[in-house]
Amino acid sequence: xxxxxxxxxxxxxxxxxxxxxxxxxxxxxxxxxxxxxxxxxxxxxxxxxxxxxxxxxxxxxxxxxxxxxxxxxxxxxxxxxxxxxxxxxxxxxxxxxxxxxxxxxxxxxxxxxxxxxxxxxxxxxxxxxxxxxxxxxxxxxxxxxxxxxxxxxxxxxxxxxxxxxxxxxxxxxxxxxxxxxxxxxxxxxxxxxxxxxxxxxxxxxxxxxxxxxxxxxxxxxxxxxxxxxxxxxxxxxxxxxxxxxxxxxxxxxxxxxxxxxxxxxxxxxxxxxxxxxxxxxxxxxxxxxxxxxxxxxxxxxxxxxxxxxxxxxxxxxxxxxxxxxxxx
Length: 328
What we know:
By secondary structure, the protein is mostly helical. It has 16 helices and two strands. The chain has helices spanning 3-31, 38-42, 47-57, 63-75, 89-124, 129-143, 146-160, 179-183, 186-203, 205-219, 222-229, 234-246, 248-263, 266-271, 277-286, 290-318, and strands at residues 81-82, 87-88. It has a two-stranded antiparallel sheet with strand order 1-2.
């Protein structure tokens, strides 16, 4: 099977996955009790007003018609209308989506840079006390829930030392003029330090463990012994030969982990009161705002699916031992 046929098959699988995801998303939200008007009906909305709201949202139509309309709207880029915010779902989620991307994207980049370097060093130190100490620290960070790590950081650096703000994305009263002024401002970076540190401590552990495992295997290879016999410096052997041959599994899992991290940002956003996609999704479910909740789930689910697709193609591209047919 050639490259073109392989990519075509993967794209077909991607389309099937998207269809299954969208169908499941539609069915799950239609199985929930109530509708977007339930909460407001309890606060004074009359039955006539409720019926008009259902008609405006298309929720009075048969399910198959609603499903067809939903899929059609997605294909045209229309995520629907937020009943709670009285605005387009895209407008509500656009800012929150970028808030999550800047936080978790930066965290993942730092986590994988630190993880690869630390994993390579631990692999080079194999069998020593330093390696055992480092592995204990990594395993503690890996087994610690994100909310627990965040609470510890808040307790130490906010309530004890008073070095950082306890939450939010910017100081109260802070006004920004544009997109880059918002995300490149020092006030934004200052508020991002603690949630960023929490995410880095958690997500760096996977590349550390994978890189260390790969290094241990590579360092026992014959060609490494040959390089040592040639008299090459240790750091040259470590990074030019051992690390380069150990990094492939880390690169491929990075794409999958990034999708999971973006989708699982809810915990960090809740602990640090970060106005991102995770919190928006929970609030939308709490207020029975179907369209907003479905839009948030769709964006986050799409990111996970696309990153898995990238990882699938990346692995075959980077590893020459794997053929396009999937056989080694």
